[in-house]
Amino acid sequence: MTRNPSPVKLQSLRDKAEDFRALHHGRQILILPNAWDVPSARVFEDEGFPAGATSSAGLMVSLGYPDGQVISRDEYMSAVGRISRILSVPLSADLVAGFGTTPKEVLATVREVLKAGAIGINIEDFAHATKKLFPIETQVAKLKAIKKLGETSGVPLVINARTDAFRFAPGDEGARLKEAIRRAIAYRDAGVDCVYPMGVFDAALIRVFVQALDFPVNVMVRKGLPRVDELERLGVARVSFGPSASYAAMGLLKRVAREVLEKGMYESLLEGAITFEELNSLAQPRTRSGPSRSV
After folding, report:
1. pLDDT at res. 7
2. Bridge-partner residues for 54, per DSSP?
3. What are phi and psi of 141, to 5 degrees?
4. Mean of pLDDT values over 259-285
5. Which of 292, 283, 295, 293 is nearest to 8 (CA)?
6. Calpha distance 152→32 (Å, rounded)
7. Who contacts 180 (Cβ-Cβ below 8 Å, separation ≥6)?
8. Sequence-separated (6 or more) residues with CB below 8 Å from residue 33
9. Residue 292's pLDDT band (boundaries 50, 70, 90)?
10. How open is the CA angle 9-30-169, to the nearest 5 degrees?
């Protein structure tokens, strides 16, 4: 199963943050898998991904909560910490909207992210409960505060600023794209490292967005998204799984259940499965020597 047998390089959080930021400016697109628990994160690392991220939806549902901010900050950060402790590669945490409405509240969450061992964040500009976009000035203030915290903490936090304007702004597609670009430019100028226009997956729209920003852009895997090689040609810097790996895993479980219950067969349950020993190994870091979470 393991395709990344090279020795693990122990790094400080600062080094991990700098390496993660550099991946957004490399010759190849950064493909970022989103895990929902410790074993899924370890599988992605062992298969060779240079960094990982959490999926807010996948992680929250695995703990018995719907996506959003219903879960408490402490419980969510506990899960992020368990994932970060098992990985040697950089980890970015999806913070939904930051578990707060003010810059002060969001900064409290970001401090917990650093304590948990993550070196990047994904943060949204809308409220899940109302599906309303935050005022752009409010979001910019949050992003500037997060940027400053990263500069003063000793860990240059990598910020992926998500905008849901293409989904929730008023008007037709053109108006919503224009608002998404306006917000992304403001977030770029506030000092973030990457912008993420949720809902933009058509090649023509991606091209317009990337050209308008001239800056690292993140898109998410979903039906209709162009292949990785085309995304590279379009100038996309990063493509994240989002919750798609969770969807795939749950889809497999549904197929397994139906096959056993309806046909009395186990092929889908056994084909491609890992062993007991491999499963146990996913609960252990790839190395235990040396401090791996120092700043």
Report:
1. 53
2. 35
3. -60, -40
4. 95
5. 292
6. 27
7. 163, 165, 166, 169, 197, 200, 209
8. 44, 49, 52, 53, 240, 241, 245
9. very low
10. 135
Distances (CA, A) of 291 to 39, 80, 111, 213: 21, 18, 20, 39
Which of 149, 166, 120 lies closest to 23, judged by CA?
120
* pLDDT recorded at residue 9: 64
158-163 vs 194-197, strand pairing mode: parallel
Distance CA 13, CA 76 (A): 20
Let me know: does 46 contact 287? Beta carbons within 8 Å.
no
Cα-based distances in Å from 233 to 27, 159, 175 = 11, 24, 26
Average pLDDT score over the chain: 93
pLDDT band per the 50, 70, 90 thresholds, residue 146: very high
- CA-CA distance, 15 to 11, in Å (whole number)? 6
Sign of CA dihedral 98, 86, 19, 25: negative
Task: Indicate the residue type of 207.
Answer: R
Q: Is 114 helix (H, G, I), strand (E, B) or coil?
A: helix
- The C-alpha torsion from 25 through 245 and 159 to 72, rounded to 10°, is -170
pLDDT of 47 over the 90 cut: yes
Angstrom distances, CA of residue 153 to CA of 15, 134, 208: 13, 27, 36
